[in-house]
Amino acid sequence: MIVGKLTLAHGDSRRRIEEFNSKEYGFSVQSFVVGGEEEPLGNHFHTEKDETFLILEGEGEVASVRVAYDDQREDWIPVGEVERTTVKSGSVIKIPAFTAHAFTLRHWSKFICFSSKAFDKEKKDIIPFKII
């Protein structure tokens, strides 16, 4: 069954993103091509969805850390140490909800992201959280 196709969602000097969102089936797929800018991709976490990434071409590093809300600080804080993992073509990375993550990949690396929920403009579950 064909559900849909990828369309351009965003492009800048850091990356090009093509995306398909299915609210009907409750998932989304994004295809990324890393541009020439050195700035990491990501530096955020999601409150409602898990993401699974597949590195198609290239290599680099993924940094991740679980986060929790601290009522005293009224802010999100890391739980534990930032974990850094080297990735290359064929690597699969699972990022559960409430896990801040950032990618530093070589120029022109390509990867795909499978999200457990479709992107919803009205209900943002993405929280900026700089870890690298």
Question: What can you see in these coordinates?
Answer:
The protein is mostly beta strands. It has a single domain (7-128), classed as Jelly Rolls. The chain has no helices and 11 strands. It has a 6-stranded antiparallel sheet, with no helix packed on it. The protein has a 5-stranded antiparallel sheet with strand order 7-6-9-4-11, with no helix packed on it. The protein starts with 6 loop residues before the first strand and ends with a strand. The model has no long low-confidence stretch (mean pLDDT 94).
Question: Any descriptors?
Answer:
132 residues, mainly beta, Jelly Rolls, six-stranded antiparallel sheet, five-stranded antiparallel sheet, 0% helix, 61% strand, globular
User: What value does the Rg take, in angstroms?
Assistant: 15 Å
Q: What's the name of the CATH homologous superfamily?
A: Jelly Rolls
Count of all domains = 1
Q: How helix-rich are the residues, as a percent range?
A: under 10%
Mean pLDDT: 94
Q: Provide the CATH architecture.
A: Sandwich
CATH names the topology as Jelly Rolls
Instruction: Specify the number of helices.
Output: 0
Poorly predicted ranges (pLDDT <50, ≥5 residues)? Answer: none
**How many runs of DSSP E, i.e. beta strands?**
11
